[in-house]
Structure formats: structure tokens, C-alpha cells
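Thread amino acids onto this structure.
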């Protein structure tokens, strides 16, 4: 575990502050955009549909990731972790659960869009609610396993945030990693790729496909792929051979995912943008309803 009152090994004063500043910007950006998305759902009746419930669930998960980044940013700017070992476990659990919910939520949205576009039938409420419950319960289940002894949460190299401990590379870590990665990264990625691929094939001739079919899968790969590569490397080699600064890169990249998701699933949607605009301009919203 990192020392609380000294700079972590491999980092200088300015480097710790720079990481904290980047995390702060990412956290505030993700919280702002996803917060507006969540508020628009509750303020705009037109958005209260089963398909938009999946987007709402993703926005809640991404808000959790941004909140986790905010705690890390504050700790980095303080240049210490002030919440103790129990706080580290809670921080690791919260960050891991919301990250898995975001990944699986992306796959749920992809399947929901495929269902709507390729079957020409609206997603039912009971199906959407079941998907959301499955995503969150599954994510909480996998995030709780390290607290129960399969896997372990510990400080990242910076010493101001906590995540799944990959420094040990023992059998316990390896078995948990491969099981978790299969069900919570490879399977969601496969569902996302196949769903959008089938949508492309169905609408290739008509040209009426109105969603970006490549960005969701690219976001999963580019946003969470560096973490996957770091964890995979830890199973076959001594991760201490990688510099502490380089080990922090996956965390910085992953914290950008909430902002990208908010742009892709909310700001690119005309209906959601209308809801956000109504939240920001309540007087205009009242005039529109009066008309």
C-alpha cells in the first residue's frame, strides 16, 4: 500500500497535481453531461420510454464513474488518500461496480436498438426493466467478489485511488480476472458488435440507419481496452516492470468514457437534447406546453 503522507514512487509533485487536474476535468465533464441527461429524463414525459430507460441506466452508471474520478481528483490534489483502508475498499467497489454497469449497459442499449430496428416492435417495459436490473445486479455481484476474497482491491500506483489489485499476479487474481473479463467485457463487446452489425446489414440498402454503429464498440475497446491489456500483462509478467506513470494511463483513459457516452447517447439524440434544453430553459418549456 502506498504511503499517505509522501509522494508515490515514480511521481513528482507537479505530476501528481497534473493527474489530479485531468481527473477533475474528466469528472466535472462527465457529471455535468450525464447529470443533465438524467434530469431531462425526469423532467420530460416524452423520454419516459423503455428504450430511454436503458440510456438513463447508462447515464447513472457513468455518473458513478465520474463521481469515483472526482474522489480520486480531490485526493490527488491533496497528494494523499485521506479515507483509510476501508475507504479504499469502498472506493474500489463503487468504481468497479459502476464501470461494469457502464460496459454492460452499452451492450443492453445495442441489443435494445437492434430489437427495435430489426423487429419493428417497441421494447416492452418489463424487458427494459429486466435488462436494467440484470445489468446492475450482475455488476454489483462481480464487484463484491473482491470484498469476499476472490480478487482484491488496493491502491493504484498514484496512491490516491483504489481499484482491482493487479500487482500480485497470483492464481486468485488470474482466475478472477479471466472469469470477470469474459462475462463483463468480451460478452458485452460481442453483443455490441453483433447487434450493430446486424442493424447495418438490415438497413444497408435503405440507408435509413440513424445511429452510429461503430462508436459504441470503439468506445468499449479504446476506453476499457487499456485496462484489459494491463490486467492481461499482469497475469503473464511482473507488472512492476511497467513504470507507475504508464500504469495510470488506463485509469485516465477510462474516466473519459462517461463524457463520450453522454455525447453519443444523449447529445446526438434530438429528443434527449430537446429534454435537456427544456431543463435549461424552463420558461420556454412552459410556453411550448401552453401552445
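Threaded sequence (291 positions):
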Amino acid at each position: 500500500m502506498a504511503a499517505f503522507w509522501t509522494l508515490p514512487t515514480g511521481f513528482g509533485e507537479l505530476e501528481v497535481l497534473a493527474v489530479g487536474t485531468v481527473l477533475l476535468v474528466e469528472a466535472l465533464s462527465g457529471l455535468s453531461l450525464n447529470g443533465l441527461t438524467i434530469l431531462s429524463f425526469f423532467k420530460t414525459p416524452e423520454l419516459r420510454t423503455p428504450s430511454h430507460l436503458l440510456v438513463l441506466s447508462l447515464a447513472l452508471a457513468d455518473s458513478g464513474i465520474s463521481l469515483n474520478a472526482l474522489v480520486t481528483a480531490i485526493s490527488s490534489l491533496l497528494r494523499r488518500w485521506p479515507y483509510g483502508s476501508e475507504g479504499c475498499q469502498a472506493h474500489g467497489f463503487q468504481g468497479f461496480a459502476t464501470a461494469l454497469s457502464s460496459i454492460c449497459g452499452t451492450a443492453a442499449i445495442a441489443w435494445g436498438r437492434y430489437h427495435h430496428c430489426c423487429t419493428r416492435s417497441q421494447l416492452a417495459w418489463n424487458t427494459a426493466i429486466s435488462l436494467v436490473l440484470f445489468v446492475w445486479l450482475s455488476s454489483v455481484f462481480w464487484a463484491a467478489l473482491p470484498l469476499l476474497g476472490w480478487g482484491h482491491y488496493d491502491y493504484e500506483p498514484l496512491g490516491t485511488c483504489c481499484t482491482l489489485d493487479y500487482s500480485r499476479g497470483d492464481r486468485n487474481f488470474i482466475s478472477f480476472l479471466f472469469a470477470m473479463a469474459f462475462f463483463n467485457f468480451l460478452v458485452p463487446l460481442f453483443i455490441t458488435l453483433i447487434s450493430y452489425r446486424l442493424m447495418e446489414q438490415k438497413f444497408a440498402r435503405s440507408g435509413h440507419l440513424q445511429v452510429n454503429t461503430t462508436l459504441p464498440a470503439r468506445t468499449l475497446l479504446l476506453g476499457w481496452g487499456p485496462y484489459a491489456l494491463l490486467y492481461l500483462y499482469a497475469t503473464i509478467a511482473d507488472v512492476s516492470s511497467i513504470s507507475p506513470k504508464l500504469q495510470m494511463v488506463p485509469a485516465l483513459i477510462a474516466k473519459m468514457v462517461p463524457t463520450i457516452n453522454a455525447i453519443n447517447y444523449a447529445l446526438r439524440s434530438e429528443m434527449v437534447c430537446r429534454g435537456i434544453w427544456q431543463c435549461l430553459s424552463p420558461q420556454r418549456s412552459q410556453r411550448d406546453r401552453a401552445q
